[in-house]
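hi!! sorry for the late reply, been swamped w classes. u asked for the two structures so here they r. pasted raw, havent cleaned anything up. first the sequence of the first protein and right below it the tokens
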Amino acid sequence: MNETGRIQAEQLTKHFRKTQAVRGINLDITPGEIYGLIGPDGAGKTTTIRMLAGVMKPTAGVARVSGFDTHRQAEKLRHQVGYMAQRFSLYGDLSVRENMDFYADIFGVRGAEREPQIQRLLRFARLEEFQDRNADALSGGMKKKLGLACALIHRPQVLFLDEPTNGVDPISRREFWDILSDLHIAGVTIFISTAYMDEAERCSRVGLMYQGKIIRQDAPAELRQLVRGDLIAIVANDLAAAERVVAPMPGVSEVQAYGDRLHVFVDSATRRLPEIERALRAADLRVTQIRPTAPHLQEAFISLVTTQGRSQKDEG
């Protein structure tokens, strides 16, 4: 069986003294898949990626990428994967082209393939006209694209990206994901952690990580269905006052602010919507919209994490 592009982990664990950063996670990611990892700060996402990329030794368990043991065969693995850390790790006093030459040297990209590969990646990352500019002088979005281009210099079949679009403007984020989509079509396996739910929606599968564990993993559409009960969207003139009215009502399990509206989780939208609407109007609130709606991945994530936190508290 050809293992190229496959990512596997069995009871992968990492301890830092008394801190359990990653607690026995299991993964089986098929070649060509985009796998997104989401979770709150401190959940263990960066540690997981570093172990899978062969940068960090696990405390226990085993991980294999393209058939290579990420600990015992880390040196061989280095030439099979691309890894882009959360922080910009290129050389700011070198130009775009010099950074790419440097990484081509590191990964042994030489001979007739070198120049065409560098030029292809400059076009791919839309950096052709900036190749003489120092990396420190690039915008945040261009730095991210340069980092990605350097991670791709040796044509890896697996790409690990640790929150690569944090702090990047929306247009640059979209351009970055256009590049990832092209890589996905070309069959590259992409493992990405992200703080943005709209990016997680673009993944083949998503893992929800909380306190060192992956508490659920599935396609985004399937995860959205895990929200218990029904969801009602409310637009009113005073959302804070509306939340105070709605939150203690019978059948309401949770209220989340979502942009210019409230999302209210209820046991039955058919039964509770008229009750909620009457209560809001009785409180002299002007309701411009109230209707059942489908949950987003963000609501599913918050709901699952809240439920997990409550169950752990009860166990404690």
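now the second protein. again sequence first, tokens right under
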Amino acid sequence: MIKRLTRRNLEDAGSSGSLNDLSFLLIIFFIVIAGFNVNKGFLLNLPSKEKPIVVNTEDILKCSLTADGRILMEGNETPLAELSSLVDAKLKTWPNLTFLLTIDSECPYQNVVNVISTIRKLKVENFSFRME
């Protein structure tokens, strides 16, 4: 008796549901354990509703940024390099100094970042800004 060799039909590996499930679970696993790098920007602490901060109007140092990027401190034009020394001198005389920055809506963003960075380096605790 002669035995005939028959070929078995192989199933398509792509149609296997278990491999699809496994790949889906691996994708979910790697998304969950992946560390995402998020740009934090400026971290500003907002005052709490229970403890409102009362600011004396004499302790406010007013500064404004114009549309062309100039810094005006109490009406006088001030370069960014001098801003640090002026605020530091005021901070020594007024420990409860509040820095109020008024920003023109057409001012370049980098100038705003430069001023805020300078004020943060001086560790001014009370900082406020508004857009015109």
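hope this helps!! also noticed smth abt the second:
The two ends are 100 Å apart (CA to CA).
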